[in-house]
């Protein structure tokens, strides 16, 4: 068996936004082809920033993000061959669909990437139709993306990335805002994509679905460091790390006349 291809090699990555906000503080990890990685962390810990770095939309302030051996710098991404190859191999579903969708209709939106890939119009049409049907949004084809509901927008954003059929999928909280049926559809689709050999890097707050969508978790701390890089099956039982990351909290409860504390996942409403 050949060794797995090293796709991402992040070394001591620090990112500070122009206004001085620190988003990532010296994090290092590697991702191999076919990996399924979840990115966890509280609001503001740096998940979206990390995914933007992995998509080459941001460049580290310090340190390096390499993709298949090449640093993801603006200069390298402007190189026609590397840039084009990278954009074909990596697809990104934004956390904020409004930042991703810019075409006048859903159809145009989903057709955009396959057209960029230079596919003949007939194939573009077939691919768009297949993808819209897959997501059950063919009826939205002529609608304007910015006029859709939040969940509909998210489905269109997912359709856009699926229509380009990339080898690496970066998804920033794709589950958030989807109804239960679409959540199971997405979880199932991610499984199929994984079985097909795709590399999945998905940020989420959903600890329940975590074991279904990832094998490994990168946990960011509130201080923007990498708190843990561990197998998903260890994450849920590692309450110490989860509390440290702020993903579980202690909560006082009154049951009858006794008061005691429990650990809770933040996603629970109580
Ligand atoms: N465009 C920006 N300009 C300045 N600071 C930013 C910008 N985007 C994010 N930040 C800051 O960088 C830090 C990390 O933000 P990021 O969006 O990566 O967090 P996150 O983990 O994705 O949070 P959430 O769970 O809310 O999506 C936060 O402190 C945030 O305020
Ligand atoms: Mg985010």
Q: Could you explain how this protein is built, in words?
A:
The chain is an alpha/beta fold. The chain has a single domain, classed as Rossmann fold (3-Layer(aba) Sandwich), CATH 3.40.50. Helix content is 36%, strand content 28%. The protein has eleven helices and twelve strands. It has helices at 47-54, 74-78, 80-89, 97-100, 106-116, 121-134, 150-163, 180-195, 210-213, 232-235, 239-244, and strands at 6-16, 22-32, 36-40, 62-67, 70-71, 90-93, 168-172, 199-203, 216-220, 226-231, 248-255, 258-265. A six-stranded mixed beta sheet has the order 6-7-8-3-9-10, sandwiched between helices. The chain has a four-stranded antiparallel beta sheet with strand order 2-1-4-5, covered by helices on one side. A hairpin with a 5-residue loop joins strand 9 (216-220) and strand 10. Helix 5 packs across helix 6 (121-134), helix 5 runs parallel beside helix 7 (150-163) and helix 6 (121-134) packs across helix 7 (150-163). The longest helix has 16 residues, at 180-195. The termini are far apart. The site of magnesium ion has 4 residues, from helix 1. Residues 17, 19, 21, 23, 41, 43-49, 95 line the site of adenosine-5'-triphosphate.
């Amino acid at each position: 068996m050949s060794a797995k291809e090293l796709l991402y090699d992040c070394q001591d990555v620090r990112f500070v936004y122009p206004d001085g906000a620190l988003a990532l503080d010296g994090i290092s990890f590697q991702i191999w082809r076919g990996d399924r990685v979840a990115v966890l962390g509280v609001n503001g810990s740096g998940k979206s920033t990390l995914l933007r770095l992995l998509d080459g939309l941001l460049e580290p302030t310090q340190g390096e993000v390499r993709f298949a051996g090449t640093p993801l710098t603006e200069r390298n991404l402007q190189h026609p061959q590397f840039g084009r190859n990278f954009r074909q191999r990596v697809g990104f579903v934004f956390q904020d669909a409004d930042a991703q969708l810019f075409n006048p209709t859903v159809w145009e939106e989903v057709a955009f990437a396959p057209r960029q890939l230079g596919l003949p119009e007939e194939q573009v049409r077939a691919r768009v139709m297949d993808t819209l049907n897959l997501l059950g949004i063919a009826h939205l084809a002529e609608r304007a993306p910015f006029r859709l509901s939040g969940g509909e927008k998210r489905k269109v954003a997912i359709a856009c990335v699926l229509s380009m059929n990339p080898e690496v999928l970066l998804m920033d909280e794709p589950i958030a805002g989807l109804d239960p049926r679409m959540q199971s559809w997405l979880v199932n689709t991610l499984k199929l994509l994984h079985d097909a050999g795709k590399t999945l890097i998905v940020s989420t707050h959903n600890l329940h679905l975590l074991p279904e969508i990832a094998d490994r978790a990168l946990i960011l701390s509130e201080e923007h460091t990498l708190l843990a890089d561990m197998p998903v099956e260890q994450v849920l039982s590692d309450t110490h790390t989860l509390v440290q990351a702020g993903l579980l909290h202690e909560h006082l409860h009154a049951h009858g006349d006794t008061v005691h504390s429990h650990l809770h996942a933040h996603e629970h409403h109580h």
